[in-house]
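Quick start: what a row looks like.
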Amino acid sequence: MNHLQIVALGLGGLGLAGGAWALRSPEVAQRFYRELPRNEKLGRVLMAVNVAWSLYLFHLMRLGGWEWIKPIVYAASPLIYWLIISQANHYLGARSVALFLILAAKPIVNICFLRDESSRLVITTLAYLWVALGICFVAAPHWMRDLIAFFQSRPDRWAWGCRMKMAGGAALIALAFLAY
């Protein structure tokens, strides 16, 4: 099993399971999503993951004549984290999810980069969509709240969204077995 199959199976499984959960338990799922943009507890945990992941990626960078700045950034990272969670905590959940989407796109694009199958573009497009949504939700986190409210405004719209998520997950699983 290659890396692209693993990614497709993982993303497909998450989509299928997440859509099924939201369809089966709409009250619980809607409450979770409604609270997500302003959820400080989840935002703090996810922001810690984001800072650690960013530091790892920063460590891998070759900065040439700027290598001297790495120890400063490493030392300042707890302060940066504290400033984010204490001073920029408005919509911390939305911003944390947005940064996670941006960071998660990088390894997925790297895995797809050297593949020959044209079907790899499905996952690559999904990753770039995450980046675009991440940028929008960092800049305007209330858009996440509004998007969630749009899907929760009518029960048939919620069910349609859940079914589309499940269909997307099933399509990724099918791609994993048939195309990769």
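That is the whole record. The chain has eight helices and no strands. The chain has a mean pLDDT of 95.
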